Amino acid sequence: MYAIVETGGKQQRVSAGDVISVERVTGDKGSTIEFDKILAVGSGDNIVVGKPYVADARVIGSIVSQYRDKKVLIFKKKRRKNYKRTKGHRQYLTRVRIVEVKG
After folding, report:
1. Domain ranges, ordered by start, for the chain
2. How far apart are CA 56 and CA 66, in angstroms?
């Protein structure tokens, strides 16, 4: 069984045993979290699509680690104007192991 989960403004297809990275979710290593914004649930040819979310569908996961992604450099320049700006950003992420998909 698999589900399409919305978290952090992004959508991911998950099933039991998968390890995914999502935008930071509060919690310590080993604690459980529950995703309730489920867009679709399916197994094989049987698919249930929500409008916008599937009622009574839940995805349960456990937090593996909290970490930061690679640095993304932002560089702005205007030619012949002596204007250059460099800025960096590192996104906070949470690695989650999917324990169970209820549909």
Report:
1. 2-102
2. 28
Could you list the beta-strand ranges (E) of the chain.
2-7, 10-15, 19-23, 32-35, 38-43, 46-49, 58-68, 72-78, 83-89, 92-102
Tens digits of residue pLDDT in 63-97:
999 999 999 999 999 999 999 999 999 999 999 99
Burial (CB < 10 A; 0-12, 13-18, 19+), residue 38, is: buried
Q: Return the ∠ at Cα 99 (arms to 96 and 101), rounded to 5°.
A: 110
The three-state secondary structure class of 88 is: strand
Task: Give the global pTM.
Answer: 0.84
Distance CA 94, CA 63 (A): 7
Residue with tokens 């998968």, as numbered in its chain: 18
Provide CB contacts within 8 A for 14, sequence distance 6+.
2, 3, 4, 5, 20, 59, 98, 101
